Sequence to fold (614 residues):
Amino acid sequence: MLRPRPARWFEILTARDDATLVLEALARTGAIELDARPGAGLPADPEAVLPLLTQFAELETRYAAYWPPASACRPSPFPDAPAHALQQALQTVQAWTQDAEPHIRALQRAEAETAELQLWARVLDARAGSPLPAHEMAAAGPLVQVRLFVLPPGADAATALAATAGDQHTLSSVLVIDQAPHLLVAGAPAALQAVAQRVSTLKGSSHELPGWLREPAPDPAAHVPQRLRVLALLMAQERSALQALEGRHALPRALGDVHRLQWLLDNVHALEAGALLCWVTGWCSDPGGQTLTRALQASGARALLRHAAPPEGLHAPLLLSNPPWARPFELFSRALGMPASTEADPSVLLAVAVPLMFGYMFGDVGQGLVLAAGAWWLRRRFAVARLLMVGGLSATAFGFVFGSCFGLHGLPFMPPALWLHPLDAPLAVLLAPLVGGAVLLTLGLGLDALAAFWRGEAVRWLRTDFWLIVTYLGLLAAFVDPAGVWVAAFGALAWCLGHALQERRVTAAFSALGEGLEKTLQILINTLSFARVGAFALAHAGLSSALVALMDAADSGVAKALVLVLGNVVVIVLEAMVVSIQTTRLVLFEFFTRFMQGSGRVFRPLPAPPYATL
Fold:
């Protein structure tokens, strides 16, 4: 549980024609990382495949919006050779494009007209009562034109109209629709062209007056909905025609074959293959191998699976083995890097220490429950929400310890503080985290001892680093009993002598003296850093006290309730961020530095194919 375990090496011998089916089935498990044996080559000939993929990329740029999604494209059940399969798929796609092009153009024209109709309908609704009569000005004669300019949200309309400043023969109306300035401008063509240039620099668009607005007596209220219904019917017909062409040309299968080949080239960088057989090798996160066995059986591929010792020169990726309740706290270890095979994974310890630190700094029953409820609602979207949920529950528990609920004390449904109110005994509140920090750092030194044992360096550790723990504990004990100073001095002397004995030279004791002094000061400073846990507990209590004072100063019950609600919202948001940052800092920079380097290899599973499979 504390020691990362290496992934298990697997080898699969399969028919070359079934290699793709095997890779797809294995990728769906999420339990393998491919790693070819030395001497393996590329799975496909890039010189034959890449030019065809370039042709497909050009078609994809033009037509991808009218293709079915990759998740709906099921490739051929028995894939051909890469170059042949891609050539066949390209021919299918090109045949589809020839038949689909007229329908796509008709659909694009209908979509463009729909967007233009909706734009002018919004403008006409917004300009009701405007002094710029678009109908009359459009019919004023060939020397006067009307044009609509749409600017991005937040753009300055005056900048676009600066080109017409001082022109008495130009009229403009500025409308703000969905926070975007819309400029309806009437004037000479040269003036409108100057405005169009400025609008272009502002990344805006220009729209001519539509023909249906130029008619003698248009009725936009009736014309626009009627035309939109016609266009909607037309677009539905064109989409139906495109869908029929998909089935006629077997487009989903052709696209699935291309997506499969792209997936292989992106994720399978080497395979050992002969004329008839192929080796698929790598690492598996399933210790028993049942997951791979079931996946191969379900795929129908001709394949044999075996687990053997990995080839020389290959280093296994590492996996963390923690119970489900500790897995969310693996986030801290992965932030620094994967622990090496001879380093301890502290996730189980952090599952206890992190909630204690978080809850101590954020001790409040009501605020903790609100934070836990919000984190529970977001737990599927954000991995860190699970940590906040546990932290919120811990804050609730410490709320009973401190007797606080939404910053209030002495509520009828709340028992008295199980320990004390932070502001009543600030020294005790500061001292408790120091003791807890000393315990946590001592455990970190113990994890370093465990790592030394795994590396086969137990004797070296007993001669040297063990005495650093004795020195540290002796200095801590000296705050209670002066005799602890003598224990620390003995530990420092043994540290120096142990280095001299380990390296078999007397001068090593003098260099060890400087090193020991540095490490002792460092761990003492790390211990003092845990005082920030008590400091933030006091700060939280101070914020709550200020909130209560503001609430008491309010005149009415409504104002008191408003201050209480808004104040608690501010405290929850602010304290959640600050306390999370401080907890993370203490873990990464104070605790992890005692034992962890994070030099292990991370297990990276083969991504699942983006297309549908059988």
Observations:
- The domain at 125-233 is CATH 3.30.70.2750 (Alpha-Beta Plaits).
